[in-house]
Prior knowledge:
By secondary structure, this protein is an all-beta fold. It is 0% helix and 53% strand. The model is unreliable at 3-17, 19-26 and 354-363 (pLDDT under 50).
Amino acid sequence: MKAKRLHILFICFALGIIQITMSNAGDGVVVHRPEVGDTNFGHSVDISEKTFIASYTSYVGDLGGVYIFGMKAAVVAGKKVQKWDVLHHFITPDDKARDWFGWDVAIDGDIAVVAAYEDGGNKVVAGGPLGEGPGAVYVYTRSGKKFGQRKKLKADDGKEKDRFGFSVDISGETLVVGAPNDDDTGADSGSAYVYVRREKQWRQQAKLVPADAAAKQWFGWDIGIAGNTVVVGAPLDKEKGRNAGAAYVFVRTGEEWKQQQKLTASTPEVKAAFGNAVAITQHMAIVGAPFEDGVDVDAGAAYTYLRRGGSWLEKKKVESQFLRKGEVEDLTTGDNFGNAVAIDKSLLAAKLKGQILVAVGSR
Length: 363
C-alpha cells in the first residue's frame, strides 16, 4: 500500500508467500511465511531501503502480528542473491482482543508503524473482547539493529468505531493516521491525524478534514505522505455521484496544514470508489478507482497526477491493459484494478484482483 522510498515493482502474496521483484534487480525474491503467523501473511506490506515489514491478521481480527525483515547479500550456488532475515516478530499486545493489529503497516528509516483500528473495545462476547474500540497505532523505533521501543498512540478525541488506524503512512518523523469513521463532521465523515516526533516524543500536529466534509464520506480510508504533502482518500464522496469518490491533497507550511486541492476522476462514475487507494511522492500521485466500469463492470482504473506549482494535473488514466505472469492482458469484469496503489519516482503500481501489484505506467 505505501510508496515512499519504495523499491517494490511487483508483489504477489497468496497462501502465505510474498514475492518481491525489486525495481533495481531483475530477479524476484520470494519471502515465505515464517513458521508463526496466520495464513494471510502479507496482508499489509511496506519497505524502506533494506528493511521490510509484513503483517498478518486472523480472519476475525485477533492474534495479529508483524514481521520485520532485514536484507543481506548471500551467495547461493555461486550466485549473489538477496536474502531477507527476520529481525523481529511483534504480536498484538492485547492478547486475543479483536483489535485488528497489523491491518495496515508503514516503515521509513528507523520507524515502523503498526495499526490496530479497533483497539480499546469494551464489548464482550462469549467471555472475550470483540473489539469495536476507537483504534490505536503502535510506533516501533530502531536503536542500533533492533526495533525495541514501542509507543502507543490514540486519538485524544477518539470514540468507539472511529477506526483510528485503518490507514497509516510515515515520512521521516511525520506520521499520518486515517480514521474514516470519525463523526466530527457527520456520521462516518472521517478524518486524518498528523503526528510529528520531536525530542523522541510523538505529538499531534493537526487533525485534517476536507473543506467540504460530509457524512458517510469515509475520508481517511487510505493515506499517503511524502515530506510536507499528504493525500487522503474519500471513496464514498458524492460530489461527482453516489460513492464516486475523491482524494484530497494537503500541504504543510511551517506547522500549519492546508488543503491544496480536491482530486476527482476525469470520467467520474457512480460507485467507482475513486480514492479507495492513494499514494504520493513529492511531485506525483496515483489514485485507484477499483469499481469503475469504464472497460467492464468493476474492472477498475488508476489515475495519475503531476504537481505543477500549487496544482495537481491529471496526467493519465490507466484502465486498458496490465501485465500478468509476463503477458499483456486486458482488464475484465471484477478485476478491481486500483484496489491498492503504490508509486516511487517514475514507477507506478496498482493492485489487481487476485492480490497482484502490477506496474501501470511511467512518468
